[in-house]
Design brief:
10 helices
Length: 291
């Protein structure tokens, strides 16, 4: 099972949790193969080129399968043509947070502030073309505001400057931001999932906060190389589904910020198509393109 990120990260941890019980379900060992680099694209390219025999899978995320393909001029794989979606594994909620000094305690107050100071309210991301960069641009589009994007080289660097007040707000995963909010270093204004998240049930969704049609979730899923026979895909989907419904795995993933969804091949493919269209539209409207 190829993972496009380094060992110990969120995607890798979720893959290893799944692989442990999936090996027992399938009756054979599963080796996690970390191919980190280029935002997950090196691993995705390796997964796309693997033999279509069901013995090599790609455990991917929205970053390398929809976000980057929507932005980059050249990608060595096609998210849909190069793979056969097997099943979505889970979704990850994002949270809008701000430094305590920002004079806004609700999403509505933040929008009012941004409209009064166009181009002056700054948001951090972990790089140009990253998921939370595009979330910030989508937020600006939906709220008809102009924000100042400040890119960093990774989530940790962005969080450090946000906590220090060097930048005013950010969109990051609930699991990453919640400890800082609980410690009083940041304040949370809302979540971007379709429904309130169990990790922060008191926070409103964007729709509840007055920004309709703004739903963004990260996601994880298992892909097989294109050409993998139907029978193999069906067997893998059933086996993964059996693992994901076990309370122990569902709880372990939830503790890491992943809500189990377990969508099958056709529903997963349709989801990927919608996600690609969404980010292509955001990239076009925000004039974002990367080499």
């Amino acid at each position: 099972m190829i993972v496009g990120f380094a060992a110990g990260g969120g995607t890798d941890t979720a893959a290893r949790l799944l692989a442990q019980d999936l090996a027992a379900e399938l009756g054979q060992p599963i080796v996690i193969d970390n191919r980190a680099g280029a935002g997950g694209m090196i691993g995705a390219a390796a997964g796309a080129k693997a033999p279509a025999d069901g013995y090599t899978l790609f455990f991917g995320s929205g970053s390398e399968l929809t976000v980057l393909p929507a932005l980059k001029k050249v990608v060595s794989y096609d998210p849909l043509k190069s793979f056969r979606p097997v099943t979505q594994v889970g979704t990850v909620s994002f949270m809008l947070v701000a430094h305590p000094s920002v004079p806004a305690n609700t999403v509505g107050e933040l929008v009012t502030l941004a409209r009064a100071k166009p181009g002056q309210v700054s948001f951090a991301s972990y790089g140009v073309g990253s998921t939370n960069h595009l979330i910030g641009e989508l937020f600006a589009i939906k709220t008809q505001t102009k924000l100042l994007h400040v890119p960093y080289k990774g989530s940790a660097a962005a969080a450090t400057d946000l906590i220090a007040g060097e930048v005013q707000m950010a969109f990051d995963t609930v699991s990453v931001m919640r400890p800082h909010v609980q410690a009083g270093r940041l304040k949370a204004l809302g979540v971007l999932s379709a429904r309130r998240t169990a990790q922060a049930p008191d926070l409103p969704t964007m729709a509840e906060a007055g920004v309709p049609d703004l739903v963004v979730e990260g996601w994880l899923g298992v892909m097989a190389p294109a050409g993998t026979p139907d029978a193999i895909v069906q067997r893998l989907e059933k086996a993964i589904g059996n693992v994901l419904v076990t309370p122990r795995i569902a709880e372990a993933l939830m503790q890491r910020g992943v809500k189990v969804t377990s969508e099958g091949p056709e529903a997963f493919r349709a989801f990927i198509e919608r996600d690609l269209d969404k980010w292509r539209n955001v990239a076009q409207r925000a004039h974002i393109e990367i080499e």
